[in-house]
Amino acid sequence: MDVNAKAAEIEKAGPVNESPRANMRFVVTISLVAAFGGLLFGYDTAVIAGAIGYLQTKFQLSAAMTGWAASSAIWGCIFGVLCTGYVSDAIGRKKVLVLTAIIFAVSAVGSAIPVDLTQFVIARFINGIAVGAASMLSPLYIAEIAPAKYRGILVTLYQLAIVIGINLIYFINMKIASMGNEAWNVELGWRYMLGSEVVPAIIFFGLLFFVPESPRWLASKNRIDEALKILKKLNGDIQARIVLQDILTTLHEEKGTVRELFSKGLRAALIVGVVLALFSQITGINAIIYYAPEILKSIGMGQDAALVQTVIIGTTNTIFTFVAIAFIDKIGRRSLLLWGVSGMVICLAAIGLLFYLQVGNNTWLMVFIIGYIASFASSLGPIPWVIISEIFPTKTRGVAMSLATVVLWIGVALITQWTPVMMEQLGGAYTFWIFMVNAVILLVFSYRMIPETKGKTLEEIEQIWKKKG
To answer: What predicted TM-score, i.e. pTM, was given to this entire model?
Structure first.
């Protein structure tokens, strides 16, 4: 295919802005819009942290049923991810993101008005479908539009949006809970918490009309003129032609099937994606994100104090995500991951020890919980999203990310379902030591298996795996 001829045709349609600054403004703007899906991810999943105690009282839930109420959205996420890869490969990234915004809004209303647990679980499951779709498509979309030099930072914006969403809903939960007494919160407070999800969903829906379709997806559908036009806005005229030629060459070589992911060349990439996805969750982050108030109440804090401490945890998560943004494209994905997971291992060991010794001073427990959150947010929080969005071939990236992301959500579901049971039957010490062992396994795996991908194009990264094969 003559890419230069295609470019010449498009030049006739109008001038192209060659300013690098203008290009970056465009890239950052659409990346921020796509990352808004991450804000909804964090907001809609973490809302349960403030509501779950009141739901437990309202519907008289056992530990297992409390886990079921909290994890119902997560099981929806798994279903959403399973469908989204195929659908986004068929009709486009942007159209599916618009659909998820609609589902976010509708399910938020359903979650706020149930009269029994079954209705609540159904509404949250539907909400989870949208969360799962966004969790795969938002970083995938950013990775496909981002210049290689800035891809790590731009995909990390997605993780930043997640933690901002978590922190925002922690604060909103605290404010709503302060509007009434315990009885009011059991009857109405949790409904306001869940219903508040409508607002960011509507904002996301509106913003999506200002972003283009993924140029790599357009190229995969042989819509070359459209792809090149968008690539020029993202990269400038000269670099756009180079990137498009790389995309077309890669697409021509690929078979575009799931079976190819299990081939000798890409099997290592699949293993890395799946392990990172799973262990980013079973090292305990969502035990704290979703159950922080209940965990803190178990060591003697009151409800109000526990909600305040949860806001501090969310703020730490946000601040240290900026650390990842600052360093991910400087020191690289691999080094940042090794340092961060090492910090998580130390903090999880200490948290388990404090529970085991039944130390009455809550300050030290909060110190190590915050240390754990800081270590996670600066490494294992954003890096799996970056790596998973980078390592798969263009034509099968949607399906491949579905596979890795569904494993991630299975990990989330297991932790969300079983944390109340583990805390009740094993106690805090052994619960957090189990998370520590998982973190040690991930640390060894990362050291031995994960290559550095900073500064490389998506097509260059694909060649790394083929050479390793």
So the answer is: 0.73
